[in-house]
Structure of LysR family transcriptional regulator:
Amino acid sequence: MDTFRVGFVPGVEPDRFVRRWRERERRPLELVLLEEHAVRDALDDDQVHMVLARLPVDADGLHLIPLWEELPVAVLGTDHVLTLLDDLGEDDLADEIRNDGPAAQAIETAAAGTGVALVPMSLARLHHRKDAVIRVRRDAAPTRIGLAWRQGLDDPGAETFIGVVRGRRAGSTRGDQERARSTSPSPDKPRRPAKQPDRKRSAARSRPGRRR
């Protein structure tokens, strides 16, 4: 029996989908960890049948179902002045160095006292460090995870996995790939922490800190 292969990017936790798949299928399911830049190549080269990808991706020739949203956060060193605040806005981050590169590297640099790492909460938790602090970005747009696969994919496993990620019960006859493409589930809206009093924010800005 051939294996159905599903890629996923760092920060996605696909274990719950494996359990649901096994309730429906005897066919083996293989999970393949992919870096974000490798998602399109993995699909084009038939390394995987489908991918749980962080959007946006190059969608030319692909089908795509948006799934859930990810909370945007900033990761800072523990002694950074902005850790005095419970959440951060773009005005708070305006003068900060924004660390580029892979999330793990950006977070490591921030923890060492240089700049901030702006990442989804899922990646901040994946690369959690004791010498770093996470703060929610209250006015930043969330990122989103979606399910992507090539147009023309002819594999019954695709229909099964669509049902898995959309939470349909085992044995449900609802929908096919066309129905799944034409409707999108309601996103899980992240809760935003309450805005803090201006006096606290003003104190953080006036206190000497590691501004870069």
In short: The CA atoms of residues 72 and 140 lie 6 Å apart. Helices lie at 15-24, 39-44, 90-93, 103-111, 121-126, 156-165, 177-182, 198-206. The beta strands are 4-8, 29-33, 50-55, 62-70, 72-77, 87-88, 117-120, 132-137, 143-150. The longest strand covers residues 62-70.
